[in-house]
Amino acid sequence: MKILLFGGTFDPVHNEHVKLVKGGIKELSPDKVVIIPALVPPHKSAASVGAHDRLNMAELAFSFDKKIEVSDIEIKRGGQSYTYLTATYFRELYPDAEIFFLIGGDSFFDFDKWVHPEIIAEKCKIVVVSRGEFTEKLVTRNSEFEKKYGYKAKILSFNGDFTSSTYIRYCLMLGCGAENLPESVSAYIEKNGLYKGDKYFEYLHEHLKEKRLYHTAGVIEYGLLINKQLKLDHDKVVLACALHDVAKYMHEEDFKGFVRPEGMSDSVVHAFLGEYVAKNVLGVTDEEVLSAIRYHTTGKADMSPLEKLVYTADLLERNRTYPGVAKLRKSVEENFEKGFAECVCQGYKHLKQAMISSNVYYLTKEAYDFYKSER
User: Fold this and answer.
1) pTM of the complete model
2) I need a labelling partner for 168 at 20 to 30 A (CA). Which of 4, 194, 262, 360 fits?
């Protein structure tokens, strides 16, 4: 008997999850596929919606094949959802079966950091779906995997894309809709009122254009990715990223208490006005969050970690397509501090080329001078 296991938070389950499982079925021809929603993954914060709803969404999304079942084993177990316990459970349940565990390429590179990866690799054969091209880096990683665990992981020929539950989730919370969801899952979310945003998200929905809402969801998503390196407070990261462009379409004359700093151009005033709106209209009192909103466009010398995070996420989120953005993302994801400095320097050079250097706001010049040696 051949069994394929596939776990995840599924918050929410999306079309790429479905395609991934279909790819595994096509290439492995398993007799049974088990989808395993996690309760609380060790490497993530708690899910946005409850286990019951995520189970229901998984059952809807994966109902296309009778050999697929959705298991509540990790949810019933309680606590953090450690994969080695799940792998052990299924090995004991099916002692003579050939069991495969399907993971994404990003998880494959981080596999050694999981809790007891040696137990997982012993109980199951690891199957990997890459995102994007089959790279030399993936081949090298598989050789390392073989030396450590005694066999090479099977790399599926199916290549996944960069669909993200995090991005979809925040699109829904911002009320701009979300693509790449199974119709049944989308209908379930709407019927049950899932992924509703708080007062900050409602305010953004009322005051930002749709394109800016998608950008905002992207900034939150990329900010949380960066935060895997920085390990800042999760809620502060989400709030600062969410509100960074809150005043993008507002007019300073509508806020009598706001005073534009001297010499500031129209292109950056929204960041400083955004801080004012966040504080005086929305009641944000956290100075770290307010400062990150204020400097997300201009930058400044000696920025705090949260200021750097929002500045970088704004430049590199998934909807940015300017020349060189992929290279900057790679730099940031390999080493945040060096990548951030590169973002500051590239941004300043672009501004100098696009406008008279005397019109570049002084804080941006100070940021460039402060960080240019750290690239």
Assistant:
1) 0.92
2) 4
